[in-house]
Amino acid sequence: MQPNHLETTHVHEVYNLIADHFSATRYKPWPVVDSFLRELEKGSLGADVGCGNGKYLGVNKEVFTVGSDRSDKLIEIVQKRGFEAMVCDNLSLPYRDACFDFVISIAVIHHMSSPERRLEALKELLRITRTGGRILVFVWAFEQEGKRKYQEQDVFVPWKMPKKIYCPEGQPTKGSTPTEEGSQDIVYQRYYHLFVKGELDELITRTGMATIETSGYDRDNWYCVARKT
Amino acid sequence: MRLITHNMLQCHAKGCDPSQSYPLELKEVQLESLDAEYSEDFIRRLIPKLDWNVLVHTAFALGVAELPKELPDVQDEAFLRKVHQVALETRVKEAQMVCNGCGHVYPIKDGVPNMLLQDNEV
Q1: Distances in Å between the alpha carbon of A225 and those of A52, A188, B26, B118?
Q2: Tell me: the pLDDT tens digits for B87-109?
Q3: Cβ of B22 and A96 within 8 Å?
Q4: Which domain holds residue B95?
Q5: Which Gene Ontology cellular component annotation is one that this UniProt entry carries (chain B) (predicted)?
Q6: What total of structural domains would you count in chain B?
């Protein structure tokens, strides 16, 4: 699939710009992901596609997980932490078919900007999973319980970071959103597609490559565990 | 990149001949070794998941180790430790990974493969 301007500007470039700050705020594993990983059979091989700063790569020491992300700045952080990692794109994964026992996709698919691209991303995750293997997918929910409320499913979500730490004077602020004079923050806009109830399950079913085992809602996200058929 | 990961990587450029896209050939290689905790159970479970021929060939081509061409029936500790050393403790620090099908080159820098393609290759 051809690259998409919205994703290039409001996902890929933004994550590279906010990588350090993003990583500093991402350390606590979500409970559903944590237990999925801990319950894996010893010696399992897996991929964390869109691994961010790699916070899930060390959860279970008895499995081997390869991390990947579209952002080379995030992968630099993952590599420094001693985890296995590479730069690649979810829409065209560089792994052979059916080579993994499990694949996780945590807060990734919601950055794809059309139904076709989201479907293709899921098909790629399932292509690299062996028959009988499982995938765990988390995406942001339209039905938010927290303070955020949205009117539409396709939105920009601002990422604010303190100027004085992450953008010392003289540094360019390319791609940032203009802020009021005197603001202490530098702001970038990330593109999200917010999933409505049932949408993730429907999309996974539409791949024709998996059956859904569990699905649910957790901390403003929809998630799904599906088994490759 | 550890050699276990190389065992799973294939070229994914558009139009690349699937019969030629795996494995990727490692050229201009700089290796480093690292310590990984040894677990007999883990290695035993891992072996059937690897493409054995590719691991044997890669380990030999890089001068890392000589592994038996056929998987031995009796897998003793010496053998399992060798597989552990090859797959988990041998890391490619710098290299060019070349596809024998389409000639695409994927660089590895500071241990990190960059598997992104150009816009016209996807």
Answers
A1: 20, 32, 36, 32
A2: 999 999 999 999 999 999 999 99
A3: yes
A4: 3-121
A5: eRF1 methyltransferase complex
A6: 1
